[in-house]
Design goal:
The complex is a heterodimer of chains A (491) and B (84). With 491 residues, chain A is mainly alpha-helical. Chain A is 77% helix and 0% strand. Chain A has 23 helices and no strands. Chain B is elongated and about 50 Å long. Classes of the chains: A mainly alpha (491), B mainly alpha (84). Chains A and B meet through helix 5, helix 6, helix 11, helix 12 and helix 15 of A and helix 1 and helix 2 of B.
Chain lengths: 491, 84
């Protein structure tokens, strides 16, 4: 593909993004809540689109399509179990939202630190999120580097792709904080869904004879890809090991759980959940069917992750559609990266530095913006090094972030939970996740995610029983929620 | 800081009468049990009942139906909410 086409497509997308980001700044006031949480006043549709764009990264059209290409229908089950995990938001969403407003929380870990009356709960949780999310962010940058490099036939150097992605993410995070992130996310989510649906329909109707013939072809020539364990990858242990951490994604990953603080009302949160679920179902089906299309059209690939780039660069996809798809995948990656940068910045300012007690809003914002640059720089350096360590940490991110789940459950549902229970479960859980991920050990055939959850839950319960809970805070926090939930009919 | 002043949202969405706590708790338990059963089925049905059934109407269809049911259930739970 001519690199000039690639550059033109990227430039149009960039200009549109900047236009929206600057528009979002109008009428915005200065303040920590305004910057990091859009003043808790985001409307339902923008919340839904932004939540979708943040959650779904380049993994969907590349990684999930690749999973389908190599492992078959199990990839669909894996991603839909994750989607079903959003049912957690129907219970946790209003709880986060209510206490966020009452106590002025900016980050989910600030909430945990206050609920358990121990600043170290916030510090350790935020530190662990940084360890896992910066490599994850870095892998997204690498993805764009590879994509632009591959589609331009090597004309656009890898480093240029990485830098373009990082600069866009920094800009859209800094221009108006959460507001520019949610507005540009909305644009990007629309690009992602329209492009992926369009290109799938083009390939299925032009090269596979429509959906009936497509499914017939799958049943005839790739029948074992339609069941589990199928070709072998998705055996039960693998499926459980992959799905368990992702099931809790909506409450364990701070870049999405922080979004539970931003809707302007419960009605807006309802729209956010509904919109995201519909988006998620469509995007998942499209990504999986895309992987199956690649299986039929290009059956001989040696590396499953190349299924999407290979199909986009093949004779089956016209240049213009390939370009549009490239922009769609780039949008998916950048909308995830800028949200992670903004969330990590808030975690560092509010939780790691505990600066909320010492610094003015203005100073916190200044530090927050500098932190975004530093995070981006680390992300770029990691991306350029292309280290195995970074890839492993990125893969471990969903497992590593899960260690905070027992603490979150206890914050809302178990008065006896203690700060020491939380700290020990986060530390031991993280060690378990890192150790098993790096050694590739699977004791009793169980994957790291399963062991991490078992260890962190047990540690939390045992240590909580032998240490003292913050009774007064728990009574006050849960008493307030109990009354509000009952008034608002929240289950 | 934690000095955020709580200002109740005045936007009235749907004036559903609030349920008493007992009724709310009963509904909560029923929905949790239903969702747990549904999620377990996403493991049990494809891996046990539909194991090696190589058709689109098998695991592919089941997981899609499972997701649709999970989505409808989640949306249904949110319809109880009232913004008063």
């Amino acid at each position: 593909m001519n690199p000039n086409y690639v550059y033109t497509a990227v430039i149009i997308y960039v200009l549109l993004g900047f236009f929206i980001a600057y528009k979002s700044r109008q009428g915005m006031k200065q303040g920590v809540i305004e910057y990091f949480l859009d003043n808790r006043s985001t409307g339902g549709i923008v919340s839904a689109l932004s939540y979708s764009a943040t959650t779904y990264s380049a993994f969907m059209m590349i990684g999930l399509a690749g999973f389908t290409y190599s492992g078959g229908v199990g990839a669909l089950g894996f991603e839909l179990v994750y989607l079903a995990g959003l049912s957690l938001v129907a219970f946790f969403g209003p709880r986060f939202w209510l206490v966020g407003k009452k106590y002025g929380y900016v980050t989910p870990y600030e909430m945990l630190g206050d609920r358990f009356q121990n600043k170290w709960v916030a510090i350790i949780s935020a530190g662990s999120a940084c360890i896992f999310l910066i490599p994850y962010l870095s892998v997204q940058l690498m993805g764009i580097g590879y994509l632009l490099n591959g589609l331009s036939g090597g004309q656009i150097p890898f480093i240029v792709g990485v830098l373009i992605a990082a600069l866009l993410a920094i800009s859209w995070a800094i221009i108006a904080g959460m507001r520019s992130v949610t507005w540009t996310d909305s644009l990007q989510s629309l690009i992602m869904i329209v492009v992926s649906v369009l290109i799938l329909f083009y390939v299925v109707y032009n090269h596979l004879g429509g959906f009936i013939s497509f499914f017939n072809e799958l049943e005839t020539n790739h029948a074992n890809f339609l069941s589990v364990p199928g070709p072998g990858f998705f055996n039960f242990q693998a499926f459980l090991g992959l799905t368990l951490p992702w099931f809790f994604f909506s409450i364990s990953n701070p870049q999405v759980s922080q979004r539970l603080f931003i809707p302007k009302s419960l009605k807006a949160m309802k729209t956010m959940i509904k919109g995201f679920l519909i988006f998620g179902l469509i995007y998942t089906l499209v990504s999986v069917l895309w992987g199956f299309s690649a299986k039929i059209l290009l059956p001989g690939l040696t590396q499953a992750d190349l299924a999407t780039p290979s199909l986009l660069g093949s004779q089956y996809v016209p240049t213009v559609l390939g370009l549009i798809a490239m922009v769609g995948i780039t949008a998916a990656a950048i909308s995830t990266v800028d949200s992670i940068m903004l969330t990590l910045s808030s975690l560092i300012v509010r939780d790691l530095m505990q600066s909320r007690d010492e610094y003015s809003d203005k100073k916190q914002l200044r530090i927050g913006k500098i932190v975004i640059f530093i995070i981006a720089l680390i992300g770029i350096i990691f991306a350029l090094q292309q280290l195995d360590l970074i890839a492993t940490l990125s893969v471990a991110s969903s497992v590593g972030l899960m260690v905070v789940v027992p603490t979150i459950f206890s914050a809302f549902f178990w008065k006896k939970g203690t700060a020491y229970g939380s700290l020990s479960s986060i530390v031991l859980g993280s060690i378990t996740a890192l150790y098993l991920q790096f050694t590739n050990l699977k004791p009793l055939g169980l994957w790291p995610g399963v062991w991490t959850l078992i260890i962190s839950v047990l540690t939390f319960i045992i240590v909580s029983y032998i240490t003292e809970a913050p009774k007064e805070k728990a009574e006050e926090f849960l008493g307030y929620l109990d009354q509000e939930l009952s008034d608002k009919n929240v289950l | 800081m934690h000095t955020g002043v709580y200002t109740p949202d005045k936007t009235l969405y749907k004036r559903s009468a609030s349920m008493d706590k007992h009724k709310l708790n009963k509904k909560r338990i029923l929905w949790v049990v239903w969702l747990l059963a549904l999620i377990i089925s996403a493991y049990f049905v494809p891996f046990v009942l539909l194991r090696d059934v190589n058709q689109v109407e098998a695991s592919f269809l089941y997981w899609t139906l499972f997701a649709v049911l999970a989505i409808i259930s989640t949306i249904k739970i949110t319809t109880y909410w009232s913004d008063k």
